[in-house]
Amino acid sequence: MVPVEVSVVVGFVLAVLLAWAPLLSIERLRALFAWPTRSVGVNYLLVGSVVVVGQCVSYLGVILLVAGTGSVTGGEAAGIVGGVVGANLLVPGAAAVASLRLLPSRGYWSPDGEGFGGRFALGLGVVWYAVVTSVAFVVVALGAMFAALPT
Fold it and tell me: How far is residue 12's CA from residue 125's CA, in Å, rounded to a whole number?
């Protein structure tokens, strides 16, 4: 049997990847997923899953830094939400900067092309990712809160 926590993380990853997928209609973002295999779908699932799981690890770090291992009070809950929103911008922002620095120099991707520029498309992708992950985090947190209420 799969632990509940793993199921929640897998559901979170799938929800974020599904909500971010429409941005693949932007050619410069779709071109980002030409590596490591030649299949955009496989690469999107692989790279996207690594980024979103890294995002979940950052949530754990935020929770441990703000609340430690004890119960969470109202003030700590606000700190956790603030830290999560910051992490939702920091993690994809770092991935975007790494993409801009590493991929063109290795010949895997160029920010220049038809339609939207790659830098603008990456910025749009980071903002949309932050919105999607923030909403998904709130939904999961509310679900956990309601599941923990006494019956």
Answer: 18
Among candidate residues 91, 93, 19, the one with its CA nearest the CA of residue 56: 91
Q: Residues 106-141: pLDDT tens digits?
A: 888 888 877 778 899 999 999 999 999 999 999 988
Note whether residue 101 is domain-resident.
Answer: yes
Block residue for tokens 């979103």: 52
Choose among 56, 38, 45, 34: nearest CA to 118. Answer: 34
* Number of structural domains found in the chain: 1
Q: Give the predicted TM-score (pTM) of the model.
A: 0.86
Which domain range does residue 65 map to? 40-148
Of 102, 141, 126, nearest to 29 (Cα)?
126
